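Hypothesis: this fold can be encoded by more than one sequence.
Test: take the structure tokens below, design a sequence, compare later.
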């Protein structure tokens, strides 16, 4: 199998798992806060099939993953029934934020695991540098004499990369993302209605400019994780 295809498959697998984690976390949080809607719809699971969205989980990622090492995706929106929450406004926001929080937590756990590997496995620093290069599709890096643990190292590095990217993506203040849903709670009624009515325009704008906006926030956070990985 060509190296580039193998990397694409690796990244897509991590992306699908990350999306499942995001949606499962929101369903779990909503259930804990009194709204069982998502649980009853079978969304409180890590099974990717329960969260599959044709555009967000398949079409969009496949269209872009051959052009960029940084790929975005999403699952079916998690449905909340606000009246079931004990404090509807507060609890719905908490449940919504549970998704990005889970992805940030996954990135932190993967970082800790890689730091442990770096300190316990011989020559693992070179392997992590190789994983970093391959994750960014630098196919010119040498892959000879890599240790047997390398697939795990690559998986953990992709976990950091993909989860941080989706963390930033989901918190953008756009009506169809978690950040936009949070923003709606703070807007006056008329402003919120106007904001939601402009969803289609925001979507077109995101198609052309969104990835550049994401990088403004993603690259500094990824740099911090990278620095911690090699300094701790």
């Amino acid at each position: 199998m060509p190296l580039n295809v193998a990397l694409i498959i690796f990244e897509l697998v991590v992306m699908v798992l990350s999306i499942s984690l995001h949606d499962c976390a929101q369903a779990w949080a909503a259930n804990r806060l009194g709204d069982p809607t998502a649980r009853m719809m079978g969304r409180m699971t890590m099974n990717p099939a329960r969260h599959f969205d044709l555009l967000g989980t398949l079409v969009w990622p496949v269209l872009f993953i051959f052009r960029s090492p940084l790929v975005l995706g999403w699952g079916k929106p998690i449905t909340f029934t606000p009246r079931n929450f004990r404090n509807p406004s507060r609890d719905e926001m908490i449940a919504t934020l549970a998704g990005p929080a889970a992805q940030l937590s996954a990135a932190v756990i993967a970082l800790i695991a890689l730091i442990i590997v770096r300190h316990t496995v011989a020559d693992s620093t070179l392997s992590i540098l190789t994983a970093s290069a391959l994750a960014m599709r630098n196919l010119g890096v040498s892959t000879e004499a890599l240790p047997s643990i390398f697939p795990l190292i690559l998986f953990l590095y992709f976990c950091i990369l993909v989860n941080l990217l989706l963390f930033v993506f989901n918190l953008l203040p756009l009506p169809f993302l978690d950040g936009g849903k949070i923003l709606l709670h703070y807007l006056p009624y008329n402003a919120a209605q106007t904001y939601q009515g402009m969803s289609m325009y925001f979507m077109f704008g995101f198609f052309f400019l969104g990835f550049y906006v994401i990088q403004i926030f993603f690259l500094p956070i990824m740099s911090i994780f990278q620095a911690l990985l090699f300094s701790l």
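The chain has a mean pLDDT of 89. The two ends are 35 Å apart (CA to CA).
Hypothesis status: open.
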